[in-house]
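Pasting as-is:
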Amino acid sequence: MIWNVEEFTRAAGATVERLAAYVDESQRGLPPVIARRPPRELAEKLGLARWIREGGMTPDDHAAFLAAYLEEGTRLHHPASLGHQVAAPDFPAALADLVHGAANNPMAVYEMGASAATVEHEVVRWMLEKTGYGAAGGGVLTHGGSLANLTALLAARAAVAPDAWTEGVPGDLALLVPASAHYSLTRAAAILGLGERAVVPLETDPLGRIDVARLPDALDRVRRAGRRPMALVASACATGTGLHDDLRGIGEFCAEHGVRFHVDGAHGMSALLSDEHRHRLDGVELADSLIWDAHKMLRTSSLAAAVLTRRGGDLDAAFRQEASYLFYDRDADTHVNPSGVRLPASSGPAPDSTPASGPAPGSAPAPGSGGPPGIDSIGRTVECSKAELGLKVFLNLAWRGERGLGDHVTRQYAAAHRLWELGRERPGFTFPYEPESNIVCFRYGTGDQLEIRERLMAEGAFHLTSAEIGGVRHLRATVMAPATDDKTLEALLDQVSAV
C-alpha cells in the first residue's frame, strides 16, 4: 500500500502539535514527572489489543491515542526529572528522527544512504578532533554506549589476539576494570567469550576511582596468574557517582607497560566542549579507544554513541566478515584505498581522489557495494541496518554550535554543584563527595533511601535513581533537563526531608 500523503500530512501535523504541547507543559513542570500505571491497565487504556487486531486508525484516532500515550511514562523535559542519564532531547534531534522515520536510509553501506553516511563521516571527524585523536584516528556511530563498549573491546581483542575471530578466544585474556565501571563492560567480556572470571577488578579509592599507585600490583597479579591483559578500562565519568578516573596517570601507566587503554566516556566526554570542565578529561588522548554518547549530554535523542580509536585501522581489524551480497568490492571493478573510500579501479589510491573534506575517519579497506566513490562503515560495526545517527548529532550542532552544547554541559554541571551546596546547609543531608559532573549522590537521615525514592515517584513529584558507594545506598540525582533550576532543587530537598 503506497503512502497516502494527505493522511500522513494530517497525522504528522497532529503529532507535532501534541508533542509541542507535551514538551511545553513538561518544561513548565505542570504534570507529574512520572506516571506508571500497571501494564495490563495501561494496555487497556490505550486499546492496544483492539488496534493490533483490527487496525483502521485514522489521523483523528492517532491524535487521541497519542494524547493518552504521552500521559504515561517519564517526562525528561520536566525540571523534576533527575533520574537516568538520558537527554531531554533538543528539537533538531527530534527533526532528524522524523526524517529517518520517513526516509529510512540504513547507511552502513554508502549506496543505501549517501547523505546520511557523509554526515556521520563528518560528525565522527569532528569527534576525533575534539578527543585529540585527529586524522590518524578512526570511529563510527552505533546504537548506544553498551554496543560501543562491546565494539571497542572487539578491537582490543583483535589487537591482542588477532586469531580470535577464526580460532576462538584464548583462555589467558584478562580485562582490568574497576567495580565502579558500567555493567556493559562485564557483559561485553561474557559476550566476547572471555567469561566473567576473566574480569579482574582494579583497586579503587573509597569513592570508586581507580588507584593509579596500585596498578603495578594489579598487573603483576594478572601476569603471575598466566593471563594477558586485553585492556584496562577507566571511566570518564563513572555512571554511579559522576566522578572521573585519572586518565593521564592511567594512560601513562598503560603506555609504559604495553597495556591497551580504553575509556568509557559515554557520559562525560561531552565536557570536552566546556571551557570550565574539559580539564577533567586531561589525558584522554592517550587512550587506545573511547566511547562518547551523544544521547546523554549532547541533547540527542536515543540512541547515538560513538566508538573512537586512536589508530584508524583498529575498528576494521575487529571484524572479519564475508557475505557475498554485501562484501564484494574487492574485485577487479573497484579499488578500496586505505581510507575506506571506494574508488573505481582506474582511479588508483591517489589521496586527491577522496572526497573534498578528506578521507573517511581512519578506516581500513571498507566493504560494501562497488560503483562511485563512497564511505562504508559496515566493516566497523555490529549493525548492518544502521540508522541515520549522525543526522541527529549534526542538526543539534548546526542549530546550537559547539559553544551552545558546551554551555549546556557547563550549566547542568553547575546545577548539580548547586544541589550539593544547598543540601549541605540542611540538617540530615550527607554528601560523600563534591560533584565533578551533573551527577550527585546523597543520603537523608539513616533510614531506607529506596523508600524515599519510591515515595517521590509514587507522588509523581521527582524522579531520582540510587547508587551504592562503599556498600552504602545513596539517592542519586542526574541533572539532565535544562528546566531544572534552584527552585526545583530546593523543592527536591523539601520533599526528601518531608515526613
